[in-house]
């Protein structure tokens, strides 16, 4: 497997976090504002993680660390949340 670029790794990290948070939001009976705060909070925690991984060597600016992968995270989080929630209430 070839080496991945930092942007690709950031997208993968955020997509995996989106899947995990989507499963948590869909599986637990969370009140809607709490579920949204959980999703936003996990994304906020992922920003320093990305900065620590790639910001020290000048590979990544702070703005790029914040905006890179936000769409992938939000889409994955919401789709997994809706899908898993619908699967759990139908059974």
Description:
The chain has 91 residues and is mainly α. It has one domain (6-86). Helix content is 79%, strand content 0%. The relative contact order is 0.21. The model has no long low-confidence stretch (mean pLDDT 89).
The tally of helices reads: 4
Mean pLDDT, as a whole number?
89
Radius of gyration: 15 Å
Shape: elongated
How many domains comprise the coordinates? Answer: 1
Largest sheet: none
Q: Calculate the terminal CA-CA distance, rounded to whole Å.
A: 40 Å
| Quaternary structure state of the chains depicted | single chain
Structural class: mainly alpha
Helix content: over 70%
Q: How many β-strand runs?
A: 0
Q: Strand fraction band?
A: under 5%
Q: What low-confidence regions span 5 or more consecutive residues with pLDDT below 50?
A: none
- What is the helix/strand order? HHHH
Note the topology.
Blueprint: H1 6-27, H2 32-54, H3 62-67, H4 70-90
Helix pairs in contact: 1-2, 1-4
């Amino acid at each position: 497997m070839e080496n991945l670029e930092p942007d690709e790794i950031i997208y993968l990290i955020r997509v995996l976090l989106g899947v995990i948070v989507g499963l948590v939001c869909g599986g637990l009976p969370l009140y809607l504002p709490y579920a949204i705060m959980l999703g936003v909070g996990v994304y906020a925690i992922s920003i320093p993680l990305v900065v620590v991984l790639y910001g020290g060597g000048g590979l990544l600016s702070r703005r790029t660390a914040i905006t890179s992968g936000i769409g992938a995270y939000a889409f994955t989080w919401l789709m997994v949340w809706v899908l898993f929630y619908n699967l759990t209430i139908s059974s």
